[in-house]
Amino acid sequence: MDDHGSRAQDVVRCDLCQITEIPMYCEFCHIHLCRDCVAKHLSDSSKVHKVVPLQQYITTLRYPKCRKHPIKQCELHCEQCDIPICVDCILSGKHSGHAILDIFQNFKDKKILPARLAGPFPPNQVLIDVPITAISTGYEELYRVTYLNETEVWTCGNECIIRLYNTRKELVRSIQTKSGNLPGDIAVTRSGDLVYTEYNDRTVNMVDNTNTQTVIRLQGWKPCSVCSTSSGDLLVVMNSDDNEPTKVVRYSDSTEKQSIQINDKGQALYSSSGNKYISENRNLDICVSDHGARAIVVVNQAGKLRFIYTGPPPLFIKKPFIPYGITTDSKSRILIADHINDCIHILDQDGQFIRYIDNCDLVGPCDLCVDNKDCLYVAEYFMGKIKKIQRYK
Q1: Which residues pair with 142 in a beta bridge?
Q2: Residue 378: Cβ within 10 Å count
Q3: Which helix (H) or strand (E) holds 152?
Q4: Which structural domain, as residue segments, surrounds residue 106?
Q5: Which of 109, 320, 347, 358 maximizes the CB count within 10 A of its CB?
Q6: Domain with 181 in it: what CATH number?
Q7: Does 5 map to a domain?
Q8: Do 292 and 221 sit in the same domain of this protein?
């Protein structure tokens, strides 16, 4: 399976030589390395590197950085303020007399007792996750889902056909890709037009009624993910032919306006290969689910890094966190498909973990989207189904 189709059965490879034995990981560059390539990677003295065994990176408990004291890690949680805090926060006296918990215990409480959350939910509203319906798409492997309107969603999988289904489980429309290759990703513009990427053909295409037009054609890069923004722009995640760091490019009417690739320290924001998913948040942040880096990377509208989410402490998920699809809702919360752990992570707009959706019998969730009522549509890779989930009662 080529790169654009390497979804739920991705084999993690060395990002330099592409062999499958990858016991090492560079925490700063977010790339996987085999032992033979470590020396070559470290020889690039223009960047800072920290190479560790991959298993150590996956299992290390990572404390969030303190917003008030950025050089400190938050090992505690203030119950009254409902925020993570560091030792310097305690010494400041602002949390005097408040109940203070170990932050890992707080994560555990949020998973087990989500109804106790004081998060950004409407008052007197009971949290509930109920699967409303399941739509069989006919794909042997289902890759993507995107919202069109209150009754219809577009889907794509391991065929060159993109399908539109309604909530009555009926096939409404089918579109074949222009080149006959598998689509990489799908999105819907503000005007309701379908947009899809063709990885091997290096194109981004738009379908207006029955006409398909190539709106972006790349050279030296391949588009792996796309989303339509609130301003009408397209954000395209693309991988390089020459193993350069992956970048996010903003297009307006087929014209490149912005390129997001490195942080203020000159380090790559995204891993250099593998699948990515992208979504614009209501606050205009750009959220990328980086499968290769096993992280969610969020930058602001200007492309400045805001935060990186690498999952909750491993104590509270059974298997490694390897993110797939990503979307956002009307409250600017970020929702992430955790294919390996069969659940959905919900974060606030600042990257703080809120809770899981793990009670809807999800099997291999690989992508997701929300409608205008914050109902959630989840694509199940192996089942070939879209589950619609009502999150509130």
Answers
A1: 157
A2: 27
A3: strand 152-157
A4: 61-112
A5: 347
A6: 2.120.10.30
A7: no
A8: yes
Tokens in use for 360? 């809807």
In angstroms, rounded to a whole number, what is the distance separating the alpha carbons of residues 342 and 362? 6
Number of H-type helices and E-type strands within the chain: 4, 30
Dihedral Cα 233, 235, 240, 245, nearest 10 deg: 120
**Prediction pTM value:** 0.70
Q: In this predicted model, what pLDDT tens digit does every residue of 290-334 receive, in sequence order? A: 988 999 999 999 999 999 999 876 656 678 888 999 999 999 999
391's tokens? 């999150």
Structure tokens at 118: 């004081």
Q: Is residue 139 a contact partner of residue 159, using CB atoms and an 8 Å limit?
A: yes
Residue 119 CB burial class (10 angstroms; 0-12, 13-18, ≥19): middle
- Structure tokens given for 76: 């505690």
Query: Where does residue 323 rank: exposed (0-12), middle (13-18), buried (19+ CB within 10 A)?
Result: buried
Query: CA–CA distance from 313 to each of 110, 223, 378 (Å)?
Result: 12, 32, 24
My answer on whether 40 and 135 are in the same domain is: no
The dihedral sign for the CA sequence 375, 378, 384, 385: negative
Residue 379's nearest CA partner among 387, 370, 371 is: 387
Residue 34 has pLDDT above 90, yes or no: no
Is residue 239 located within the same domain as residue 347? yes
